[in-house]
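F.,

This is the one I mentioned.
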């Protein structure tokens, strides 16, 4: 019989807490050097309750590290032009160092136009085409927060990426595509899939690393997971359910992220850290 595993949990919360402590030190250093408090502007369009909750969480994390947050709330029915105009004002404000537009942006607003209004140096959430292009090319940029957080987790748990076969399920421009690019830049061999990929279970069975970001609860089945694979669940669905059938995947996997407590805390920690670095760059403070 082959070797079987009971996966070790990848604790994103503990690592995220450590990043937040380190970021608080950076924020203090910036404030002492420049007499300016790093500031994140959050933009919420519409009245989605889940989005409002996420915004409050991010503002709380800002306060935790000593950063300032500025909240911009725009009503449902606002036009693309009005949202873009508001973001441009934030972009021109030297007191604002990072801009986050909470997604999903409701229809019929042109979310790409909204994202592209954020200048590269303030794109701390990694949503613009300029940031994605730089991520693909391995150039400096504030990469999309969830993929960046996942890469930090993989490094923390010393997951060997060089030559590994990674399967990314999900092709969004802020998660799946930058995730694939970051893994390629780390010398992994990457297969980028989505919910309509043919023979998906057999593709996943060949993966050393599986990253699920498809937005469907328990979509990835335990029987798809190769013995010893690393499983990263980047999904979050109602009822604290991820995109992976956790109970089925925990047996064959060697490492797995829980939901909650895995990828989620890392995403927010990456955002807060990016904002601190953005402030340092704009203020000319060396960290």
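My design for it:
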């Amino acid at each position: 019989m082959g070797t079987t595993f009971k996966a070790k949990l990848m604790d994103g919360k503990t690592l995220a807490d450590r990043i937040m402590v380190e970021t608080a030190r950076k924020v203090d250093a910036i404030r002492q050097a420049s007499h300016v408090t790093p500031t994140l502007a959050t933009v919420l369009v519409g009245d989605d309750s889940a989005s409002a909750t996420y915004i409050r969480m991010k503002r709380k994390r800002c306060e935790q590290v000593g950063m300032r947050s500025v909240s911009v709330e725009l009503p449902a029915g606002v036009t693309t032009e009005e949202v873009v105009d508001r973001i441009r004002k934030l972009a021109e404000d030297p007191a604002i160092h990072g801009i986050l537009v909470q997604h999903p942006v409701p229809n019929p607003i042109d979310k790409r136009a909204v994202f592209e209004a954020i200048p590269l140096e303030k794109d701390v959430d990694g949503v613009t085409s300029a940031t994605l292009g730089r991520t693909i090319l391995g150039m400096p940029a504030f990469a999309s927060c969830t993929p960046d957080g996942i890469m930090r987790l993989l490094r923390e748990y010393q997951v060997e990426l060089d030559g590994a076969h990674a399967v990314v399920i999900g092709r969004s421009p802020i998660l799946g595509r930058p995730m694939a690019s970051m893994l390629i830049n780390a010398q992994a061999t990457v297969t980028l899939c989505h919910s309509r990929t043919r023979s998906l279970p057999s593709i996943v069975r060949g993966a050393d690393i599986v990253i699920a970001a498809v937005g469907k609860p328990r979509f990835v089945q335990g029987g798809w997971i190769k013995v010893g694979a690393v499983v990263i669940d980047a999904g979050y669905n109602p009822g604290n359910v991820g995109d992976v059938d956790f109970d089925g995947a925990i047996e064959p996997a060697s490492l797995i992220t829980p939901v909650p407590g895995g990828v989620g805390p890392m995403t927010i920690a990456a955002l807060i850290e990016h904002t601190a670095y953005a402030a340092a760059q704009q203020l000319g403070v060396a960290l």
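The radius of gyration is 19 Å.

Talk soon.
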